Amino acid sequence: MARLLSYGVCNAFLVDVWTASSHRRRGIGSELVKRLLEQVAGQYVGLQTDDAQQFYASLGFRPQPESWSRVVGRWVDNDTATAASTHS
Ligand SMILES: CC(C)(COP(=O)(O)OP(=O)(O)OC[C@H]1O[C@@H](n2cnc3c(N)ncnc32)[C@H](O)[C@@H]1OP(=O)(O)O)[C@@H](O)C(=O)NCCC(=O)NCCS
Questions:
Q1: Which CATH number, 3.30.70.560, 3.40.50.720, 3.40.630.30, 3.40.1110.10, labels domain 3-87?
Q2: pTM of the model as a whole
């Protein structure tokens, strides 16, 4: 699976790129990302990765010298999601 978030103008963000362990190194991840990138010609595409640098480099991505981020509260401790699932 792979998702690309974009508001359709100039910025997009690639998230949740994942190939089943049993099917890795067969070009599946690359094909998913390439198909998504075709949808956002002309846009800046950002991503965050801890350990898939070689994969993204093979697709033409390069490190961004300065990137800022923050976690709101504790990471993956989302009271809103918990409340939504409790009340749905
Ligand atoms: C990263 C991931 C999506 C790659 O998917 P994939 O389908 O195996 O990728 P591809 O077969 O298209 O790989 C394309 C190229 O990327 C590079 N690459 C992919 N996995 C790599 C690895 N583990 N180590 C080094 N290079 C790797 C190689 O250059 C590869 O080409 P090659 O196989 O001809 O050498 C997959 O390993 C995965 O799901 N990992 C766990 C989730 C994850 O880390 N996602 C990224 C979060 S940001």
A1: 3.40.630.30
A2: 0.88
